Amino acid sequence: MDIKKVEPGDCGEAAELAVQLWKRNTKEEIVQEFLDIVQSDEGAIYLGTEDGRPVGFAQCQLRRDYVEGTRTSPVGYLEGIFLLRAYRGKGRAEQLLSACEEWAAGKGCREFASDCELSNEGSLKFHLKSGFQEANRIICFTKPLQESGGE
């Protein structure tokens, strides 16, 4: 698999894959988000291709706030990784992850982190196989607030 760092002109190709991972977002929303990322120094996106065809992507960013289980800042963070089903289980995701880790190390990071949903067994297995250690398990809560009439 060939891996290249996404430039502004590649955001559409990467977004085609990303909408399969983040189904609540439109391609247009993801293209805009990816443009913002690739035009900053705070993140990177890598596109994996085979025979010129996009087959996977990985998005990583710097996180400067506290990241569960880490001791340094900034921390490189795997925000998302996706491969078309036919290309899974052959080491390609690890290649994309390595590109992200190299990028983060080049930005001065000494740690790299990620997360996945509790129910995503495939992602959990990938992370553990790739050398990540589980730091914590949490359940997140939200609650609507009553609108106040004041200030």
Can you tell me about this structure?
- By secondary structure, the chain is an alpha+beta fold.
- The chain has a single domain (2-129), classed as Aminopeptidase (3-Layer(aba) Sandwich).
- It has four helices and five strands.
- It has a five-stranded mixed beta sheet, sandwiched between helices.
- Helix 1 crosses helix 2.
- The chain is globular.
- 28% of the residues are buried.
- The mean pLDDT is 95.
CATH class category = Alpha Beta
CATH topology name, in short, is Aminopeptidase
The termini sit apart by: 56 Å
Oligomer: single chain
| Rg result | 17 Å
Give the helix level as a range of percent: 25-40%
Elements, N to C (H/E): EHHEEEHEH
Largest sheet: 5 strands, mixed
Beta-sheet strand percentage?
15-25%
- Whole-number mean pLDDT: 95
- CATH-assigned homologous superfamily: Gcn5-related N-acetyltransferase (GNAT)
The CATH architecture name reads 3-Layer(aba) Sandwich
Q: Helix- and strand-based class?
A: alpha+beta
Strand order of the largest sheet: 1-2-3-4-5
Query: Low-confidence runs (pLDDT<50, min 5 residues)?
Result: none
Q: Provide the number of structural domains.
A: 1
Total of helices: 4
What key phrases describe this protein's structure?
single chain, 151 residues, alpha+beta, Aminopeptidase, five-stranded mixed β-sheet, 31% helix, globular
Write a brief caption for the model:
By secondary structure, the protein is an alpha+beta fold. The chain has helices at residues 11-21, 27-38, 92-106, 121-129, and strands at 2-5, 43-50, 53-63, 75-83, 112-113.
